[in-house]
């Protein structure tokens, strides 16, 4: 499969679409999920174009996981939670809807995971959660 540079996350990376960002460096971006499966649902993406984890350069994957860990710690501290579901869907068959590799950090239990990419969240509330995560970084 060829990487589609018009996918939503590619457009967010180019600044063509807005996102509520919590962390950014030259290789990775972390931002709030627009249809959260729980309060504080955050996405971490490498900036390099890759569709799934299987396509991703291993060194970039390793660095991205370091950022995933950093954001997970900030979610726990900033939101006062103590459990996070780390989810990574590789391929449409697995349920992946946006074809740019990403890691979901969902502060909830596996048993309470809401519906996937189903309902727009309250963007004001999401902004407030993002501020708390950023403050804990
Ligand atoms: P996937 O199904 O590919 O694993 O996850 C894609 C995620 O991106 C879903 O959780 C969905 O809610 C989220 N999402 C879809 N469109 C947008 C968008 O425009 N902005 C943001 N921030 N998240 C999005």
From TrEMBL:
Name recorded for this polypeptide: HIT domain-containing protein
Q: Motif Histidine triad motif residues?
A: 100-104
Organism the protein comes from: Acinetobacter variabilis
Q: GO terms for biological process? A: nucleotide metabolic process
Where the record annotates domain HIT, the positions are 8-115
Pfam families (alphabetical): HIT
Q: Which PROSITE patterns match?
A: HIT_2
**Residues in the active site?**
102 (tele-amp-histidine intermediate)
Q: Which GO terms describe its molecular function?
A: catalytic activity
């Amino acid at each position: 499969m060829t990487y589609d540079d018009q996918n939503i996350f590619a457009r967010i990376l180019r600044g063509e679409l807005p996102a509520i960002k919590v962390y950014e460096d030259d290789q990775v971006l972390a931002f709030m999920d627009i249809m959260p499966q729980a309060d504080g649902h955050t996405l971490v993406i490498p900036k390099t174009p890759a569709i799934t984890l299987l396509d991703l350069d291993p060194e970039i994957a390793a660095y991205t996981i370091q950022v995933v860990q950093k954001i997970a710690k900030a979610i726990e501290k900033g939101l006062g939670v103590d459990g996070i579901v780390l989810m990574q869907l590789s391929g449409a068959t697995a349920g992946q809807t946006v074809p740019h590799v990403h890691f979901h950090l969902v502060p909830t239990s596996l048993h309470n995971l809401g519906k996937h990419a189903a309902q727009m969240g309250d963007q004001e509330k999401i902004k407030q959660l993002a501020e708390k995560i950023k403050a804990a970084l």
